[in-house]
From TrEMBL:
Matching InterPro entries: AstE_AspA_cat, Peptidase_M14
Alphabetic keyword roster: Carboxypeptidase, Hydrolase, Metal-binding, Protease, Zinc
Position of the signal peptide: none
Name recorded for this polypeptide: M14 family metallocarboxypeptidase
Length: 312
């Protein structure tokens, strides 16, 4: 599962300039439709939910309204859950897992929690099956300093303006073979750095925020997902993607400090989920189901802590 090769844009050892970024952007072709796959699905949600436009990406001739879903019967006395998907547009089950949670499970939590779901944070990347945004910037390193790109800034502004006290934030991702075949080589070429290939974990895992990892919460997600699909084993170094294994399927990594989406809120329980959709041991449907299982397990765990805590 390793691959090292020269990336066809740029000069080895030299970071990209505007010309190289423009060359890269011109090579990105639309392969699927955000409107057909996401917007229409949101329009079909029951009346128990409101679809809110919190921003827009304008890349003429393309314009992408950015949507989030909130439950209509909002109760400020209840804890609030945030689910984000499609921060990396190419990570398909992040988007479709969030949509499946909305259609199948979210309503069951209304009355115990408020629910916010932003299913596709990066629609330009979703359509082009691309990790980066249009400017060759990684959205999942941009949730800091008020949002370094519009995909991040729009969501951060909107969440901040609401003033909700978030209990849970689940950010849905995938780790794919294309990370090694395309995106890691592109990143190293863009930054003028040497490519050091990594091993892609075969299975589901979670990345807890090393600044506040909440191990029992992370373990609850793994216990739920292993009923749906397999959990990634550690590599020969006892690691997953360069991070030491803390417990089966659980690693801790920087979040807020690197601008990851899972770290931009003050949610007590936060995580990044990771599915490996290229495994012969799973299917796209199972990957979506794994994301839904992780969301539900995370909410269930967090609500159990709140609902059983002593009242003052």
């Amino acid at each position: 599962m390793t691959n090292a090769h020269f990336y066809p844009i740029g000069t080895p050892g030299q970071p990209w300039g505007d010309a190289e970024r423009a060359q890269w952007r011109a090579a990105q072709q639309r392969q699927r439709s955000y409107f057909d796959d996401v917007v229409i699905a949101l329009e079909q949600l029951p009346d128990d939910f409101d679809v809110v436009q919190y921003g827009q990406l304008d890349h003429a001739p393309d314009h992408y309204p950015l949507f989030a879903v909130v439950n209509r019967d909002w109760n400020p006395a209840l804890p609030t859950v945030l689910v984000t998907g499609g921060v990396h547009g190419y990570e398909t089950s992040g988007v479709h897992g969030a949509l499946q949670f909305l259609s199948d499970k979210a309503l069951g939590y209304v009355g115990r929690a408020n629910v916010i779901v932003a299913p596709c944070v990066s629609p330009w990347g979703y359509e082009r099956i691309q990790r980066w945004n249009r400017e060759a910037i990684d959205p999942n390193r941009s949730f800091r300093d008020g949002g370094q790109i519009e995909e991040a800034a729009s969501l951060m502004r909107w969440i901040a303006s609401r003033g909700d006290a978030l209990l849970v934030h689940l950010d849905l991702h995938e780790t794919t073979d294309s990370d090694l075949q395309e995106f890691d080589p592109a990143r190293c070429a863009r930054d003028g750095k040497e490519l050091v290939p990594e091993t892609i974990p075969d299975g589901f895992y979670v990345i807890g925020n090393s600044e506040d990892p909440q191990p029992a919460f992370q373990q609850a997600l793994i216990a739920a997902v292993e009923k749906v699909t397999h959990i990634a084993p550690a590599d020969a170094n006892g690691e997953l993607v360069g991070m030491p294994l803390q417990s089966p399927g659980v690693v801790w990594g920087e979040s807020r400090s690197i601008g990851a989406c899972a770290g931009f809120t003050d949610a007590r329980y936060a995580t990044t989920t990771e599915v490996y959709p290229d495994s012969p041991r799973t299917t796209p449907a199972e990957c979506n189901q794994a994301q839904v299982a992780a969301i539900c397990a995370g909410i269930d765990f967090a609500l159990a802590q709140v609902e059983t805590s002593p009242k003052r």
